[in-house]
Amino acid sequence: MSASDSQAQRAAMAARYQALRAHTLALAAPLSAEDQALQSMPDASPAKWHQAHTSWFFEALLLRPHRPGYRAFDERFFYLFNSYYEALGPRHPRPQRGLLSRPSLDAVRAYRAHVDAAMWELIEQCDADTWARALPVLELGLQHEQQHQELLLTDILHAFSCNPLLPAYDADTSLRAARASGPLRWLRHAGGRLELGHDGQGFAFDNEGPRHEVLLAPFEIAHRLVSCGDYAEFIADGGYRRPEFWLSDGWAQVQAQGWQAPAYWLEPGDPRAPARDWQVFGLAGVRPLDPDAPVLGLSFFEAAAYADWAGARLPSEFEWEAAATGLAGLAQLYDAAWQWTRSAYHPYPGFRPLAGPAAEYNGKFMVGQLVLRGASLATPPGHARPSYRNFFPPAARWQFSGLRLARDIEEGSKT
Amino acid sequence: MSASDSQAQRAAMAARYQALRAHTLALAAPLSAEDQALQSMPDASPAKWHQAHTSWFFEALLLRPHRPGYRAFDERFFYLFNSYYEALGPRHPRPQRGLLSRPSLDAVRAYRAHVDAAMWELIEQCDADTWARALPVLELGLQHEQQHQELLLTDILHAFSCNPLLPAYDADTSLRAARASGPLRWLRHAGGRLELGHDGQGFAFDNEGPRHEVLLAPFEIAHRLVSCGDYAEFIADGGYRRPEFWLSDGWAQVQAQGWQAPAYWLEPGDPRAPARDWQVFGLAGVRPLDPDAPVLGLSFFEAAAYADWAGARLPSEFEWEAAATGLAGLAQLYDAAWQWTRSAYHPYPGFRPLAGPAAEYNGKFMVGQLVLRGASLATPPGHARPSYRNFFPPAARWQFSGLRLARDIEEGSKT
Amino acid sequence: MSASDSQAQRAAMAARYQALRAHTLALAAPLSAEDQALQSMPDASPAKWHQAHTSWFFEALLLRPHRPGYRAFDERFFYLFNSYYEALGPRHPRPQRGLLSRPSLDAVRAYRAHVDAAMWELIEQCDADTWARALPVLELGLQHEQQHQELLLTDILHAFSCNPLLPAYDADTSLRAARASGPLRWLRHAGGRLELGHDGQGFAFDNEGPRHEVLLAPFEIAHRLVSCGDYAEFIADGGYRRPEFWLSDGWAQVQAQGWQAPAYWLEPGDPRAPARDWQVFGLAGVRPLDPDAPVLGLSFFEAAAYADWAGARLPSEFEWEAAATGLAGLAQLYDAAWQWTRSAYHPYPGFRPLAGPAAEYNGKFMVGQLVLRGASLATPPGHARPSYRNFFPPAARWQFSGLRLARDIEEGSKT
Amino acid sequence: MSASDSQAQRAAMAARYQALRAHTLALAAPLSAEDQALQSMPDASPAKWHQAHTSWFFEALLLRPHRPGYRAFDERFFYLFNSYYEALGPRHPRPQRGLLSRPSLDAVRAYRAHVDAAMWELIEQCDADTWARALPVLELGLQHEQQHQELLLTDILHAFSCNPLLPAYDADTSLRAARASGPLRWLRHAGGRLELGHDGQGFAFDNEGPRHEVLLAPFEIAHRLVSCGDYAEFIADGGYRRPEFWLSDGWAQVQAQGWQAPAYWLEPGDPRAPARDWQVFGLAGVRPLDPDAPVLGLSFFEAAAYADWAGARLPSEFEWEAAATGLAGLAQLYDAAWQWTRSAYHPYPGFRPLAGPAAEYNGKFMVGQLVLRGASLATPPGHARPSYRNFFPPAARWQFSGLRLARDIEEGSKT
User: Fold this and answer.
1) Is D92 touching C (CB cutoff 8 A)?
2) Contact assessment for residue C289 and residue C278, using Cβ atoms and an 8 Å cutoff
C-alpha cells in the first residue's frame, strides 16, 4: 500500500472510529447516570458498563500491545471491565456489574476520552507494521462496539421492565421495528447444493466461516415475520397452556416462569397499564399492541411452539441464508427482529477461531445456544449481513427476537 | 394544654422535624446519585430508598389519615416505598429496590420537600383533636427516620464493600467508634429482683415495654467492648477453624460463607489493599487495624464464639440493661458498637403492639432474631437509651455490631 | 455402693437396655427394608439409620473409650453413622443418609446385635471405676435411643406422606393421641417467684438445668390442647389468608410453601383421598378428621397465628412448667402432642454442657429454635417429665406438635 | 400375511418379549430391594422404577388401547410410573421416584407378571387388525425396555458412587468395556455426498430418519476410542486447570463442580480406596485404572476439551455414521462407550414424530442436548446400529460415555 493510500485509509478509519464511538454516547443520552448503572439480571449489563467495556476492548487488545508507552487511565479498570477473556486475567464477577457506582458515569466518560485520544494517536502515528497488525483488531473493536450498542438498548429495556413505573427509554425514539401488513405469503426455494457462510469480502466474525457447501431440500419460507396479531391468536388458542406444541425444556420454562405471553406484553388490566387490550412495553414506553408489528421478546421455545401450532417450523440457519441471498420478496430481514432458527450454534466445518486473545470472542460459546439470523430495529445500520450469526440460549427472551416461518414442500405440492 | 403551650409544642416539633429531616440529607451528601441507587443485597436498601421510605412513612401514617385534602406527590409511590406494612397494601419487592433508577434522586428529593411542606401545614394548622392523635405518630416517624439514618450508613458501607475499588463514604468523616485502651476490667453486679424495660418517661418503642420485674443472678460484665486487638488474637488462635467454640448454625455459616475474619477486615496481602497487616474497611475507607478500636462487623455467631474462646459469655439483655443503669465505669455504651446479647428478640410479658398500621412496626419480627443493646458510632445522637432493643438475625454482620463480655460469678469468688 | 448393690444395679440396667433396644426393633417391625431406607428431606433420617446411629452412640461413647479390646463391627460405620459430633471426626453428609442401601437392613441389625453383645459384656464385666464412669453415658445412650424412637416414627410418617399412595405405618397402631372433648377451660396460675428446671432427681438432659428461680406474672392456661375442630374454625375464618395473625417470617412461609392447613391434612376432594370433608394422614393412614383429637403437625408459626386469632397467646416454657407441676386439671400433658411455647431455646442461667463428646448433645443448638414442652403420642413411655425441653426451628411441622393456649390476666379480672 | 405366517410372527414375538423381559430381571438380580429403591439424583431413576415404568409402557400404549376388558393391576400405577408423557396425564414428580418404598419390589414384580400375562394374551389372541396396529408399538416397547436396561445399570452405578462404601454391582460381572491397546491410528474418509440416517430396514426410532443426503468434507477418524491412559496424560498436563481447552459453559462446570477427573475416577489416596495410583469405580467395584480401557464417565465438555488438547476434534454425528458404515478397521464401535459427537441433537430435515402418545418419545427433547453414537458395554446386544442417536445434555457424565477423535484433513496432506 502506498503511503498516501495508507494515510487515506487511516483517515477514513479515524473518522469511522469517531462516529461510531459518538453513536454509543448518543444511544446513552436519554438515560440518567442512575439509569446507566442498572443491572437487572446477570445476563444483562449496565449501560455505563457497556461504555467502559468497549473502551477496555480497545485498550486491552490494541493500546497495551501496540502502543508503547501507553499509560492506562486506571490500572484497576483492566480488572473491572474485562468481560470474559480468561487469557487476559481475572475479572469482576458478571452478576455484580450493577454494584459499581464507582467509577462514576463521568469517570467512565473520561476513560472513553482517554482511550479515544490514545487511539487517535495510534491510528495517526503508528508505523506501517503496527498498522498492519492493528487494523484487523481495530475493525473487530468497532464491530464489537456495535454489538454492545444493541445490547445497551436491550439491557436497559429489561431493566426498565423491572420498574413498576415502566419508564420509556425515549418516547419519541426512531428505533421502531419495520411493520408488515397483510397475509403471510410463502416463497419457494429450490434448495440444492449451495455455498454458504461468509465469502471473505468485507468484515465478518470468525464464526461466519469457513464458507462451505451445504445441501438443502426444497423449502418454503414466509415473506414476513410473525406479527403481534398472528401471535395473539396463538395465545387466544391456549398456546401457553397446551404442552403438545412445546419442546420439553420449553414447557418446563412455561410452568416454572409462568410465561403467558412474550416478554414485555402487558395483559389487559395489568395494574401497571390497565388498558382493556394487550399493551406492549418497548423503548418508547407502553403502547397498545400493534397487530402489524413483528412479535418481539420471544424465546426460542416460544418461537418453536408458535411454529408448531401454525403447522410450520423454523428455518435452519442455512435455509434462512439461502433465502436471504437467493429470494426476492423477503421483508423485515434486518430492520425488525432477530429471527430464531432451528440451528444450534456450533462451529462450521473447518472452523478456526481468531488468533490471540480474540480467540475467545466467539468459539468458546459454541454449545447450548441457537442461531438467530437477520438483525433487529436496534442493530446499528450496516452491522448485519446475510452470513451474520447471532446466538442466544433457548430461554432468552429479552432480545428483539421474533421468528419467520418455514415449511417443507410436500412431494407433488405446488405453490 | 393551653393554646399557647400547644403552639410552643408545635413550634418545637416543627423545628425538630426540620432539623432531623435535614440531617438525613446531610448524611447522603457525600454520595452521588449513582451511589444512592445501590442495593447490594436484599437485606440492605439504597440510600435513595431510605430517603423516600421515611417520607412515605409520614405520608402514609399522618398525611393521608390526618390531613384532609392532602394530594399525593405521586400515587404510585405508595406502592414503591412501603417497606413491609401488609395492612397498607401490596408493595415493591424488597430485593428489587436497587432497580428503581426512577424516580430519580432529584424526584425523591422533590417528594421529600412535598411531604415536608404538607407536614409543616399539618403541624401548624391542624385542630387540637387531630394534633393529639398525630403527635405520637409524628414522634414515631421521627424515631423511624433516625433508624433509617443509621441504616443508610450501614447499607452504603456494605454496597461499597462489594466494589473492588473500596470507595470511602467520606475519608474525613467524624463518625468514628469510641476507642478504649488498656486491659479489660470486670465490673460486678449483684443481680436481684429488678424492674427493667422502659419506664414510660419520654419516647420508647413498643418493644421496650412493659416494664416488668426480672430476676438476675449476680454477674460480671466487662467495662469496655472487645477490641480489634482482642479479636485478632482469637483469629490467630484458630478461632475460625475450631468448631468447639461455635454454635452449630454458626459453624455451618463459617464453612458455607468462608468466614475468616469480621466483615470488612482485609487480610494481609488482600489485592484490594495489599498491606502487610490487617486492614479494615469502614466509612472512611481502608485503614490499618486499630487494636484499641472496638471490633465491628460481627455476627451473633462470631460474638458468641469469641466469648466462648475467651472463657466468658454474652450478657443477657437484662444483664446489659441492669449494668447500664446500675453500674459506674462502663465505657463504649452508646458510641461504639451495638452489642450482641444472648437474648432472643421476643415480646416482654404483657407486650401489646401499637394500634393501627404501626402495629406491624416491631411485633411481627419477634422470632428468629437476637437482641443487641447500646448504640453505635452511626446511631444519631439522642436516639438510644438503656431500654432500647435493636435486633438482627444471628448471621447478620453488616451492622456496626460488636460485643461486651459477661461472666457468671462462681460461688465464693470475689472480684 | 456394695458389691451386691452394684450387681443389682447392673442387672437392672442390662434388663432395661435389652427392653429398650428391643422396643426400637418393634417400632420398625411394620416397615419393610425398602421403607426403612427412605429419607424424604435432610431434616429426617431413614429408620435404618436411626437403628444404626443409636448403636453407634453406644459404640462411640462407651465401647471405644471404656471397653479395651473392643473390635468394631465395621470401622467405616464410625463415619457413616456419626450424626453431628465434630469432636468425633468427619461424617457422612446428613442429606445423603437415604442413599445408603448398603449396609443393608440385615447388616444394621447384625451391627446392633454386635453392639448389644459388647454392651452386655461391658455392663456385666467392667470394673467398678469403669462402671462409675460408664453409667451416666449408658443412661444418656438409652435416653438418646428413646429420642430416636420417636424420630423414627415422625420421619417415616413424613416419608410416607410424600408417597401418593399414602401408606399406613400400621393401620391398627395403638399410637394415638389422647382426645379431649368439650369446651376449653381456663386454669388460673398465680405466678410468683418459682424454682424451675430439673431438680436433680433422676435423669435429665443438661439443657434442663440448672434449676433456677423465675418470676412469673399471674396467667391462665388452657386445660386441654387446641383440637382439630378448633383449628378447622381458624382455617374456615381465613386464617391462612390473613397476615395480621402471623409473624413476618411465618407469613413468608405461608406464601412460599403454600400452607393452607397443618401438615398431613388433606383438603376435601384431595385426589389422594377424595372425601367430602377434611381427612388427616397419620400413622394409621388416612382417617376422617376427628374434631376432638389434638391438632398435630403445626409449625410454631401456625401455633402462634392460631393463638393470636383466638385472642390468646402461647405460654412461655416456664409458665408451662409451672402449670404442669402446680395445677390440677391439665389434660393431654404427655400423651397427645408436643406443645409449642413462646420461649426461645436458649441456655438457662449458669448452663454448663456435659463434659467430653456429649458436650455437643444439646448446647450447640441453642439458637434459632423454639422450646416445645410435654410429650406426644409417639414419645416412649417414661421418657418425658415436666422439665423436659424439646426444640425445633419455627417452621418445622413434621413432628407431632400442637399447642396449648395461655393468656394474661387482665387487672381486676376474675376467672 | 397368511394366517400361519402371522402365527409364526406372533410366536416369535412372544418368545422375544419373554426373553427380553427376563433379561431386565436378570440385570436387577444382583441388587437388593433396598438397592433397587435408590434414586441418587433427579436425572436417574431407581432400578425398581425402571422395571415398573417399562411395564407401564406396555400397559399404557398397548393394553389399555388395544386389549378390551384389560383390568389394571393398580389404577394408581398409571400416575406413578408415567415418565414424561403429557398426553397421558399427570405423573409423579421425577425427583421423587426414590421416595416410593411402596409399591414394594415384590409388588412391582407382580405388576410385571400381570402385564406379561395380559401381553401374552394380546399377542396370542388379538384379531388381525389389532395385531397390525399393535405390532409397531410392541416393537417400540421392547426397544424402550432395552434402553431402560442400560439406564438401570448407569443409574445404580451413580447411586452406588454416592455411597462411601462404593459397593460393587457385581464383582464378577461380564459387562466390561472392550479394550484396545497400542497407538491410535487415523483412518481417512473421503467425505462426499452421502445418504445417511436409517434406511428403513428393521426397526429404528423416529429420530434416526428420514434418511437424507449429507455433504461431508474429507476427514480422519481414530480407529479406537480415547483410552484411560490417554486421558490420564491430559489430566497430568493440567487439563482441568487450563481454560484454553474448554468451552465457556464447560469451564464454568469445572469450577462449579470441582471436576478434576472423569466421573468415578478416584484420585491416588482417595480415602474410599487409598491406593497410590488412580482407581476407577465401575460395575465390578473399585479397580486400578486400566490404561487400555476406554475412558468412560465423560461429559461432552470433557470430551471436547480433551480433543482440543490433543489437537483434534470430535466427529460430527454424520462423520461418525459415515465412518461406521464405510470404513474398515474401526474398533470399539458398539462394545465400549457411547461416543460424544460435535452434533446437536436436532431433528433431521423432514423429521416427523410418531403418531399418538409415542410422539413424545423423542422429538420433544430435540434441543439442548448432544448426540452420542455407537453403544456401550451396557447396551443390550442387538440394540444399537449405525444410525442410532443417543443424546444427553453436555454436562451429563454418569453414562458410559467416552470419545473417538476426528480431525480435518489439511489441504495437500497425506495420510
Assistant:
1) yes
2) yes
